Fold this protein.
Amino acid sequence: PPDVAQLGRSSWTLLHSIAAQYPETPSSAQQSDLASFVRLFSRLYPCWVCADDFQAYVARDTPRVASRDDFGQWLCRAHNDVNVKLGKPVFDCARWEERWRTGPPD
Ligand code: FAD
């Protein structure tokens, strides 16, 4: 079976990196691609207890795909939901872009 923690770190890196590269003003095709990706990801994620909870999260907080910031903030909330479940610190979503796209200001 996969190492759930290693799989998680790698997967969050992929997801937040997708958010970081997502356009500020995506086309309708890009928006529907991202919404489909998140839905399929939540069904295929190879940690089944994780996937069940993530699908439930997606059902109660619909993925926001209208802009980079909308998706980045949504993903940060989704990641925080898992952080709370696991007893990890809540991440300050105001710092999402600094962590995953721009790096810290100098
Ligand atoms: P991670 O949580 O992997 O985070 C990596 C880095 O992301 C952190 O170091 C930090 O810099 C940054 N970060 C942290 N929080 C945020 C945030 N809110 N927004 C932006 N950046 C942030 N594990 C389980 O044991 N049970 C589960 O049910 C479970 N469900 C998961 C569901 C999904 C969809 C995913 C992708 C992972 C899940 N995991 C689950 C794995 C878990 O979330 C962690 O990835 C794993 O425990 C390793 O944690 P970590 O402390 O290395 O940091």
The mean pLDDT is 96. The helical segments are 4-21, 28-44, 48-60, 68-86, 96-102. Residues 4-5, 8-9, 11-12, 16, 45, 49-50, 53-54, 76, 79-80, 82-83, 86, 88, 91, 96, 99 surround flavin-adenine dinucleotide (CB under 6 Å). Residues 4-101 form a domain with the Four Helix Bundle (Hemerythrin (Met), subunit A) fold (CATH 1.20.120.310).
